[in-house]
Amino acid sequence: MAPNQPQYPKSRALLIGSAVAPLMGPARDLHEMEEVLKLYGFSVTKCSKPSDGVYLANRAGIISAWKALINQTGPSDAVVIYYSGHGGLTEAEGSEAGRGERRMQYIVPLDFAETVDGDWRGISDAEMADLIYQTTQKSQNVTIILDCCHSAHMARGPTWAKAINPDDYRQVMSHIRRMLEGMASKHAFHYERNPHVLSIVAAGTSEPAYERRFLDGERMGVLTEALTQTLRSAVGAELSWRDIMRRVRDRMCRTCPEQYPDIEGPQARLPFRLETAKGGGDMAFSVTETAPGEFALKGGVLHGLSPGDVLAVMPFEEGYLVQDKMLAEAEVTGVGPIASRVRMKWRHGRSGGLTPGAKAFMWKSSVLLPVNSFGPEDWTRELREELRSSAFIRLADTGEESESIGAVELIDSHLVIRHHQHYLVREWDMCGNRESPLCPCKMRSRGGNLWPERSVSWI
Fold first, then answer.
1. Which residue, of 364, 396, 421, is where some domain finishes?
2. Per-residue pLDDT tens over the stretch 209-255
3. What interhelical angle do 125-138 and 59-72 show, nearest 10?
4. Pfam families per the record (predicted)?
5. Ramachandran region of residue 413, left (φ > 0), alpha (ψ -120 to 50) or beta?
6. Strands, DSSP E only, in 40-136?
7. Is residue 171 one of the residues assigned to a domain?
8. Which residues form the domain of 84?
9. How wide is the angle at C-alpha 439 spanned by C-alphas 435 and 444, nearest 5°?
10. What is the pLDDT of residues 361-370, one digit of tens each?
C-alpha cells in the first residue's frame, strides 16, 4: 500500500467484459481496471469469458454476478460496476415514434446473438437502473463506469441501425415491460437520476465510443486507457472526480479527439469515497500550450471569464488553489465562448513549461462586485483591508450602494450578510473566533469604539 494511500472501507468491484466480435479490447480493459482498482483497495470479481472469470458475461451471468455483489455489500462499502463491450440503442420509427415511446439503451452480453422471440438477451437501461437502485439501497458509495457506445452508429461494434425495424422495437419494449413487473424501482429508467451514483460513460447517448491500439500494440477502450492512467497518477492525491475527469478528457483529446466522455453525479467526491475534496471540487480550467510561449484555457465567456481575470495555475495533483505551490499566474488576454488566451507569469523561479495535467483556478477577478458595509468606522476600515485579497468582491464606493450585490453588517458581536433583496444569507458570532482580525472584542482591545448604540437598517 502506498504511504499516502487513504484507508477505504470494504471495497468491491464487478468488472464485466463482453468481447462480442469484432471487439478485442475488453480483456485488456478488465486487466488494467483490475490492477488500478487494487491500488484503491478493491477486491475484484470478473465476469467475462469462461477462462477469465468466475462468472460468464452472458445475460444470466452478468445479472447473477451483480445480485451476488448486492448481497455482499454493507452500508459503508464502496462499490464499482464496470462494463466494457458493445452498447446499443433502439427507438421507434414511423407510427411508433408518436406514441410517447422512448429511446432504449442496452448492453450486449456474450449470448446476445441467441435472442429469439420472447427471449431477448440484452440487458436494458431499465434493468440496469433497477440493479443500481438495489445496490444503492445497500450502500450510497456506488460508481458506475460504462466503456461502450450508447449510440446508433457504434464504433465499438457492428453498425446498429438507428431506425430499427418496429417489430424489433416492440420486442425489446415488451421485454422491458415484463421485467418491470418484478422490479424494485419501476419508476427509475435512468440510473443518472439516482443521487447516490457517480457514473462515467464513454460517450453521449447519440455519440460513438472507440477502442484502438496503443503503444504496446494491444487494443483497449479509449476511455478505459485514459481513466486507468489518470487514476494511477491520482492515488493519494485527494483529487475530486471532477479533476480526474478533466485529466481524462485532456488525454482523450490526444488519443481520440472525436470521443467525449461524460460524468454524472456527485463530482466533488474523492474517488470511490463519500468525502468531498478540499475546496469542494472547485471549478478549474485545463491549460494548454498552443504554440511556443502561447497558452490557452479551456474556459471562456460561458464560464464567467473576462479579460483581466487572473487564474492560479496549479499542478495536476493539487485539487484547489495553494499559493506556495502555484506554477504560474495566468492573466486572461482574450475571451471566446468556451476558450481564452492567457499570458503566463511564472512563479518560484520557473522559466516556463507546464507540467502534465496543469489546471487553473480563479484567483483574482477583473470585475470585483460591490457590497455595502454597515458598522463602526474602525471595523469597516478593517473589513476593507481584508477584502483587498478577495478575488470576487470589494466594499462599495460612495454612490454605488444601489448597485451592490448585498451587505455586510456588524450587529453587536454578530456579523450578518444580507442579499441585495434584503433576506438573510448567513450570520456568525465573530467573538467565537478570537483569531479573526474582524472580531469586535479583539478590535476593541486596540482602542476602537466598536459598539454602536443601534444597528443600521438595510437601505
1. 364
2. 888 888 888 899 999 999 999 999 888 888 889 889 988 988 888 88
3. 20
4. Peptidase_C14
5. alpha
6. 42-48, 55-56, 78-84, 87-90, 104-107, 123-124
7. yes
8. 11-264
9. 115
10. 988 888 778 8
φ, ψ of residue 135 to 5 degrees: the values are -65, -45
Task: Give Cα 192 distance to the centre of its chain.
Answer: 12
Specify the DSSP class assigned to residue 288: E
Q: Give me the residues of the chain with pLDDT under 50, please.
A: 1, 7, 94-100, 151-167, 187-191, 442-459
The SS3 assignment for 48 reads strand
Q: Which residue stretches of 181-321 are H helix?
A: 222-233, 241-255
3-state class (DSSP) for residue 323: helix
- Residues 81-95 as b/e (b if ≥16 CB within 10 A, e otherwise) read bbbbbbbbbbbbeee
8 Å CB contact between 146 and 190: no
Q: Which residues are CB-contacts of 150 (< 8 A; sequence separation ≥ 6)?
A: 87, 89, 105, 201, 203, 204, 205, 206, 207, 209
Which residue matches cell numbers 454524472? 264
Residue 452 lies in a domain: no
C-alpha cell at position 166: 418496429
pTM greater than the 0.90 cutoff:
no
Other C-beta atoms lying within 10 Å of the C-beta of residue 341: 18
